[in-house]
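Could you join me in thinking about how sequence relates to backbone shape in a protein? Would you write everything just below, so we can both look at the same thing?
***
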Amino acid sequence: MATAADTDAMRRAITLAARGLGSTSPNPVVGCVITDASGHVVGEGFHQRAGGPHAEIHALRAAGVLARGGTAYVTLEPCNHTGRTGPCAQALTEAGIARVVYAVADPNPQATGGADTLRAAGVDVEHGLLEEEAEEGNTAWLTSVRLGRPYVTWKYAATLDGRTAAADGTSRWISSPESRADVHRLRAESDAVVVGSGTQRADDPHLAVRGIEGATQPLRVVVDTNATALRAGARVLDDAAPTLVAIAEDAGPPPFVTAGDAAPPPFAMAGATGHDDTAAAAEPGGRGCVVVRLPRAERGLSVPALLAALHERGVRSVLLEGGPALAGSFVAAGAVDRVIGYLAPVLLGAGPAALADAGITTITEALRLHVTGAERIGTDLRVTATVPKGA
């Protein structure tokens, strides 16, 4: 049975894991706390970036010889395979750890088995402490492993009567400065930020993270089905972050590709499968621009095909910032996992609604969400809700 000290240590590990959000993909976020044989914390760490040392290694290095006979609290089952780093289960055993408590079992078939390896080495292993909290903190990676697609958060800002812009199209600014700053935090925690052609035409968004020191820039994604919205000089074509432009298989060349003197950053064209024809493709953390051709769907591009193309590039979390039409397409495709709405104390009475046609025609088909948070931010109310599993 877990003690209060066990719970405190695991909760600290969960807090540490969150520091890696936005910088570890395609790997999970993981935190680790090590206590010595008498129960004093002697080391802690978190997975900081893909390809770098895992959380357990950072914690073991901090603990040194004091780890021998101690306990390791880890948010995810220690890995059992050799990739760009060695197996953490072996490292824990070699350090003399006597007990390992982990929150979530590793669903990745390539890495699972760490618990069995530890037990075979004589280590006392316990599973499930604060499992729900640890799952929530690692939900993007877990979703990607279990469903084979990125975890999608739809974010929007609206008035209390549900309008995202006035009747004349103006929308700056509905939300407060504090809410807009919070959106940059969401971007920094995401692998990709997605908008559609309507938002691209209306706002010429930049989509990069600002105001957060050391943030890993997300992949900027523009869904431009007919290859008409994105033109040379667009802000998403600068070198602040990598960019991916998704167009239909039968669309003509994007205007920015044939813009002559106004040349974009290096780009590559990709086929309908989303596989790149050249090595110049942009990936999260890189620079440049890649264009992918994807199948059409009833409304714009195929959302599953888009998410598959992003998943292939290591994207495990998506922040959907597009307008009501793109949001409707994602909802209709069953591809929204979380909704974050910034509700401003403003009334407009007319103008576009936050969500367009999502294929819902009657109240019995309504997508009912589970509210997980509601808090004041600036003058606004931020509401966070998740889509129930199986909905």
Summary: Residues 259-287 have pLDDT under 50 and may be disordered. The first strand starts at residue 31 and ends at 35.
